[in-house]
Write a sequence for this structure.
């Protein structure tokens, strides 16, 4: 079995059902609609996904820490597959997003000028040649246009406290929806070519979002990578193969669970020469097991600075019902009941002492691992 892995950078999971092509793929997949990202920004989020462990362990916990990835301790998805004689290719937004280890060819597109649809169709043609030559392949495709447009039209135009941005939420929503619609068109064209080449006969297709994007929900975050609220932390993942029974799983899982899931689906054992993967395979949930998993996340609030901090200064622990947030930068805490308050507006930290104590202890133990 081969692997094609597509990341739709910045795709909010609450928009998946609004996209024509996302909506077509969901009923053909094992779809996880509540995947909690380790970080609400791409660099730390993708390193956690590719090694199956949190940034607190793998070394990549901020915008600045890609060079600190512990490649000798954490085996990456690409390295696992390279060691299994897969040809490994990636097309990504920059050299910092993914661990480089294990890629035969890691190429970077120009996010401002390249036509990603045509570029990625050509890469599908390339892996089709590998298929016809009897070679196994792994192709990673990074759709970055949502990120690029947010960078150009939001991040460079406003700061995190711009009243002009936060007072025009409807405009922000319409702008974001247009970007998501474009990503849906891209996905449709890629899937159509994927099927035209009959790659779906023996390929595991994984489609994810790495994190969400703000449309002005919380003052102080006009994009992402500041707070640990659900509009940026929740993502989605679809696993599609003819041998995978379609199912929709609404229970909470973690982005670090994606790597061990892929390994199990490809019948690859975890390598004991490296640190044990923190994530757990989602295959039991695909087969009907009902289970939710506690998730940890971190972010870096720049506060009044124009640059994010060198280390995370916000940490969170999330269950299906509760989220506890510790703001290290001012030692404040937040607690939200996600069932009754999904938009995280009503801080219950002074009203639910037992829950606060339990989640504070869980978060403290995680940070000290």
């Amino acid at each position: 079995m081969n692997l094609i892995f597509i990341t739709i950078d910045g795709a909010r999971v609450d928009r998946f059902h609004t996209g024509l092509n996302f909506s077509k793929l969901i009923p053909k997949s094992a779809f996880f609609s509540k995947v909690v990202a380790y970080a609400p920004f791409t660099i730390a989020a993708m390193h956690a996904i590719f090694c199956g462990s949190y940034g607190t362990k793998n070394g990549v916990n901020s915008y600045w820490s890609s060079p600190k990835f512990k490649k000798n301790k954490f085996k990456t998805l690409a390295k696992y597959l390279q060691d299994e004689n897969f040809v490994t290719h990636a097309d990504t937004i920059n050299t910092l997003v993914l661990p480089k280890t294990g890629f035969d060819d890691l190429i970077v597109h120009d996010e401002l000028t390249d036509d990603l649809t045509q570029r990625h169709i050509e890469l599908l043609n390339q892996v089709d040649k590998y298929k016809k030559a009897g070679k196994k392949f792994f192709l990673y495709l990074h759709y970055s246009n949502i990120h690029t447009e947010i960078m150009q039209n939001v991040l460079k135009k406003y700061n995190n406290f711009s009243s002009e941005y936060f007072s025009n939420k409807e405009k922000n929503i319409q702008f974001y929806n247009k970007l998501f619609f474009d990503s849906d068109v891209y996905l449709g064209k890629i899937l159509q070519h994927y099927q035209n080449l009959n790659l779906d006969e023996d390929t595991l297709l994984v489609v994810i979002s790495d994190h969400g994007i703000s449309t002005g929900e919380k003052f102080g975050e006009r994009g992402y990578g500041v707070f640990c609220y659900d509009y940026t932390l929740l993502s989605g993942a679809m696993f599609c193969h003819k041998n995978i029974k379609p199912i929709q799983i609404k229970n909470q899982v973690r982005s670090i669970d994606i790597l061990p899931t892929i390994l199990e689906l490809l019948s690859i054992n975890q390598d004991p020469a490296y640190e044990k993967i923190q994530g757990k395979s989602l295959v039991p949930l695909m087969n009907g097991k009902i289970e939710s998993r506690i998730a940890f996340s971190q972010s870096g609030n720049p506060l009044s600075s124009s640059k994010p901090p060198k280390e995370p200064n916000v940490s969170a622990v999330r269950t299906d019902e509760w989220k506890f947030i510790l703001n290290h930068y001012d030692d404040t805490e937040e607690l939200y009941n996600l069932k009754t308050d999904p938009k995280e507006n009503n801080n219950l930290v002074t009203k639910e002492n037992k829950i606060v104590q339990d989640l504070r202890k869980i978060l403290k133990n995680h940070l000290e691992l």
